């Protein structure tokens, strides 16, 4: 910064006034810069088109049989929806010891899925089909006692990339590279046989 | 037969026959006597911030325009949110059954090939019509349809000569006839006679009064203005704050400059 | 605060300065660089041009994130930006307003050179770099205008590219080569996108850097046309000069404030500016079967457009348009006056400068009107006025009765 003369025209240079004005103007400019940059930052948010394509997906469950699984896409992610047999649900409690996070304490799910079934209802399971290790699509292995997976295999998923295994509630087994259970999206049942993925009590606004 | 009945019958006959051929130089009633109707300077006078007007315009568009014209850049949900239309009303009244609110506004029921056959061209998408023509010209267009027996669809328009579009609002506005006066002028030394529009004559009334119809057109044009640039109200309101901020900043920068320039002689 | 000259500067600054001449650069370019103290309002436009360049680069980069180049996707993608990208409308309007602001600022910046003889020795190269910037800017604006692929975009491309067909021998082949197709098409918009977003901005940045280096070398001119370096004070610094920082940094900040206020008023309240900044016809998609009526380029090109249409011969008209732009390049050598600033020039020069100014503005207005009747006659008259300024300059600049130039600048605190 240049050293301004101590006196100008015989009167003192008011350094404190200069400093105040400089600071005030700079602060205002900084505030302006933040406001100016914010629409540019906002423009990177998912656009209205992305939000529309990410709108909740309605699924008709009336044709879904026991042991059958369908895959839907919601917000560009594959979602597994399957109907579990009563036996499979009851067996879930039996192998808690073989799981890394049986109570889903470290995993991601909405509050209504923080239970042993990882779902709102016993029969219908809704899981995000993205392996929590590095993102591959886990493969369906619902048959109990699979020759490859072992006679004590209760049914679930095997990830083909690095071998992570998940049970019929998407909970990860010990020995898997993945550390957390398969994530659960927000969902709700507006009717007995209608499932809406992406809409629950918290995301009540529905369409984009 | 009583005289009044005869007069009534004759009048009825004349009214029925009028669309067939009484075109150009009909001596008019007092309507518009004197100066010609200055339709070229009509203004839409629309306000895009008037949500009630936009809602009416949206309703008008859905009922009278949407079967032929799309608004392909406008989503129903965006329209509902900006115009404060609740989703259930939107679904019940403004969008076709089965459509999602997130869809774009295309519910035309005429196949393009049919439109070309019937009208001569496809009805254009109207998303940007208010930006490419301006609300004033749209207003004038919707208000200056008149009967013209010489044309295949028997209508013409002062704003857009020989339009492919028929007078779709005539049930509301009524049917009117245009009266032209001959005007002489001198061009390059020769006397030229041109037909100049003078005034309209109502042939049959519509279901709306002329004030109601005018309001109808203004609301519809207002809605099209909105559809052309949905962000415009937000643009202006943000603009006020931005300009105020910049004025403040400039004033501070001025003080700062004056302070430092005390050094300079 | 540690003195900037300390060789054993501590901390991060010391580390940095040993590896990059940061402090010495700041010192030499801002603190030790002395500019004349009598800059007036005409001297704001250089820094403003730099500001607009940065704004256009920034908003342009963001637009390029959402824009989809191609004859079937471009128009839709622009509406996508306007309606569906959060604040996309704002980014778009800043860029479109910025384009017109750029030319307004640049024209005023150039006009200052005519007022004060800023192109005269030793600043000829500075002026030439500026002229190349002007050419690059015109190319950049033309290509940018084609990208939305509205109807005016399409027909502007058609008309301007067709101008090149007037070049003898190579013309028609050249036109096809520029377009990449038999008519303005997908190939054209694709290549214009690459040129507009990458190539010409790089060229512009290089030219602006050279322009600033050339300015730094000679020092700035001033409204009195006096070379301040010829009158050093006892400290060796020009007696009529002041350090650029803090005096001109602070003054330019104020200038930026005024400019941004006016800019914001336009961008937020009248972005189309009555059909001047964004034409109605461009809100319709490109239609090869329907030419907009009337057809005209953006306001910053219309002076040259008027000259083109004033000539009844296509080839000659195109040649005159080219000469009208190239004329500027020769001004440092056409001007034979011993005096730089209009303040000390006589009435002959002032008259011709006024003639040029009026002609330029009249041609700008006429270029927006249809090319019929009285408009064409007027365009011919003003085209003569425009060229007279350049063609007769060697004569009138010498004949002009100049006033004595003082030693010191005139400055009022």
Task: List descriptors.
heterotrimer, A: 208 residues, alpha+beta, Rieske Iron-sulfur Protein, three-stranded antiparallel β-sheet, 3 helices, 19% helix, elongated, disordered N terminus, B: 265 residues, Cytochrome Bc1 Complex, Chain D, domain 2, 2 domains, two-stranded antiparallel ribbon, 46% helix, extended
Tell me about this structure.
- Helix content of chain A is 19%, strand content 21%.
- With 208 residues, chain A is an alpha+beta fold.
- Chain A folds into 2 domains: 36 residues; 145 residues, Rieske Iron-sulfur Protein, CATH 2.102.10.
- Chain B has 265 residues and is α+β, with helices and mostly antiparallel strands.
- Chain B contains 10 helices and 6 strands, in the order ααβααβαααββαββαα.
- In chain B, a hairpin with a 2-residue loop joins strand 5 and strand 6.
- Helix content of chain C is 63%, strand content 1%.
- Chain C has a two-stranded antiparallel ribbon with strand order 1-2.
- Chain C is an all-alpha fold.
- Chain C folds into 2 domains: 264 residues, Cytochrome Bc1 Complex, Chain C; 103 residues, no CATH class.
Main interface: chain pair and counts = B-C, 33 and 32 residues
CATH topology of the largest domain in chain C: Cytochrome Bc1 Complex, Chain C
**Which class best fits the helix and strand makeup of chain B?**
alpha+beta
Q: What's the shape of chain B?
A: extended
Structurally, the number of domains of chain B stands at 2
The assigned structural class of chain C equals: mainly alpha
- Helix residue percentage of chain C: 55-70%
The tally of strands of chain B reads 6
Determine the N-to-C terminus distance of chain C.
31 Å
Mean pLDDT across every amino acid position of chain C: 95
Number of strands of chain C: 2
| SS field, number of helical segments of chain B | 10
Strand content of chain C: under 5%
């Amino acid at each position: 910064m240049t050293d301004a003369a101590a006196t100008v025209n015989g009167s003192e240079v008011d350094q404190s006034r200069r400093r105040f004005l400089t600071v005030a103007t700079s602060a205002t400019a900084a505030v302006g810069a933040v406001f100016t940059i914010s629409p540019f930052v906002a423009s990177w948010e998912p656009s209205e088109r992305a939000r529309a394509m990410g709108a909740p997906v309605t699924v008709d469950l009336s044709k879904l049989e026991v042991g059958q699984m369908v895959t839907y896409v919601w917000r560009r992610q594959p979602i597994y929806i399957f109907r579990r047999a009563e036996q499979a649900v009851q067996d879930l409690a039996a192998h808690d010891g073989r799981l890394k996070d049986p109570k889903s304490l470290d995993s991601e799910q909405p509050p209504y899925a923080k239970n042993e079934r990882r779902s709102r209802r016993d029969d219908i399971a809704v899981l995000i089909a993205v392996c929590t290790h590095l993102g591959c699509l886990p493969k369906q292995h619902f048959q109990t006692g699979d020759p490859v997976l072992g006679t004590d295999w209760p049914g679930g998923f095997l990830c083909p990339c690095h071998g992570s295994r998940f049970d019929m509630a998407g909970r990860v087994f010990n020995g898997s590279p993945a550390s957390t259970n398969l994530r659960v999206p927000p969902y709700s049942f507006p009717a007995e046989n209608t499932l809406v993925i992406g809409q629950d009590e918290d995301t009540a606004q529905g369409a984009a | 037969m009583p005289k009044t009945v005869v007069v009534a019958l004759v009048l009825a006959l004349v009214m029925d026959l009028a669309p067939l051929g009484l075109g150009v130089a009909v001596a008019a009633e007092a309507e518009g006597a004197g100066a010609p109707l200055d339709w070229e300077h009509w203004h839409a006078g629309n306000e895009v911030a008037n949500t009630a007007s936009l809602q009416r315009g949206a309703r008008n568009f859905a009922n009278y325009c949407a079967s032929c014209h799309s608004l392909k850049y406008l989503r129903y949900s965006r329209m509902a949110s900006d115009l404060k239309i609740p989703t259930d009303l939107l679904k019940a009244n403004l969008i076709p059954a089965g459509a999602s609110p997130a869809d774009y506004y295309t519910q035309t029921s005429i196949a393009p090939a049919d439109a070309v056959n019937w009208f001569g061209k496809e009805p254009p998408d109207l998303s940007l019509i208010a930006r490419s023509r301006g609300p004033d010209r749209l207003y004038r267009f919707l208000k200056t349809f008149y009967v013209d027996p010489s044309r295949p669809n028997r209508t013409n328009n002062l704003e857009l000569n020989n339009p492919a579009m028929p007078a779709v609002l005539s049930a509301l506005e009524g049917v009117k006839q245009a009266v032209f006066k001959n005007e002489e002028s001198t061009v390059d030394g020769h006397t030229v006679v041109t037909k100049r529009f003078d005034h309209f004559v109502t042939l049959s009334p519509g279901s709306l009064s002329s004030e109601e119809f005018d309001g109808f057109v203004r609301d519809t044009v207002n809605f099209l203005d909105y559809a052309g640039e949905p962000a415009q109200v937000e643009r202006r309101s943000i603009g006020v704050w931005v300009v105020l901020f910049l004025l403040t900043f400039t004033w501070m920068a001025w003080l700062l400059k004056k302070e430092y320039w005390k050094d300079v002689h | 605060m540690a003195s900037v000259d300390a060789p054993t500067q501590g901390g991060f600054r010391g580390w940095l300065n040993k590896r990059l001449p940061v402090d010495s650069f700041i010192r030499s370019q801002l603190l030790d660089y002395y500019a004349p103290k009598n800059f007036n309002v005409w001297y704001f436009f250089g820094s403003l041009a730099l500001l607009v360049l940065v704004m256009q680069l920034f908003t342009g980069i963001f637009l390029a994130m959402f824009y989809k180049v191609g004859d079937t996707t471009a128009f839709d993608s622009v509406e996508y930006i306007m309606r569906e990208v959060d604040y996309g409308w704002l980014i778009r309007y800043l860029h479109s307003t910025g384009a017109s602001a750029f030319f307004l600022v640049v024209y005023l910046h150039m006009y200052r050179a005519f007022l004060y003889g800023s192109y005269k020795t030793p600043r000829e190269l500075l002026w030439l770099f500026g002229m190349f910037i002007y050419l690059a800017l015109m190319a950049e604006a033309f290509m940018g205008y084609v990208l939305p692929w509205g109807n005016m975009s399409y027909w502007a491309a058609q008309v301007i590219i067709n101008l090149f067909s007037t070049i003898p021998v190579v013309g028609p082949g050249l036109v096809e080569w520029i377009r990449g197709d038999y008519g303005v098409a997908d190939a054209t918009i694709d290549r214009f996108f690459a040129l507009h977003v990458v190539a010409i901005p790089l060229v512009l940045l290089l030219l602006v850097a050279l322009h600033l280096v050339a300015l730094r070398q000679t020092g700035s001119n001033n409204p009195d046309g006096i070379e301040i370096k010829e009158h050093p004070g006892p400290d060796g610094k020009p007696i009529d000069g002041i350090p650029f920082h803090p005096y001109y940094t602070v003054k330019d900040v104020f200038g930026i404030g005024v400019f941004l206020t006016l800019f914001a008023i336009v961008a937020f309240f009248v972005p189309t500016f009555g059909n001047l900044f964004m034409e109605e016809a461009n809100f319709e998609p490109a239609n090869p079967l329907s030419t907009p009526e009337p057809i005209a380029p953006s306001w910053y090109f219309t002076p040259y457009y008027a000259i083109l249409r004033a000539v009844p011969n296509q080839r000659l008209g195109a040649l005159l348009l080219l000469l009208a732009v190239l004329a500027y390049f020769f001004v440092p050598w056409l001007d034979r006056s011993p005096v730089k600033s209009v303040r000390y020039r006589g009435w002959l020069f002032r008259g011709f400068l006024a003639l040029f100014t009026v002609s330029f503005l009249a041609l700008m207005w006429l270029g927006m009107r249809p090319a019929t009747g009285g408009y064409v006659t007027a365009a011919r008259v003003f085209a003569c006025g425009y060229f007279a300024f350049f063609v007769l300059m060697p004569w009138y600049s010498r004949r002009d009765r100049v006033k004595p130039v003082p030693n010191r600048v005139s400055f009022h605190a």
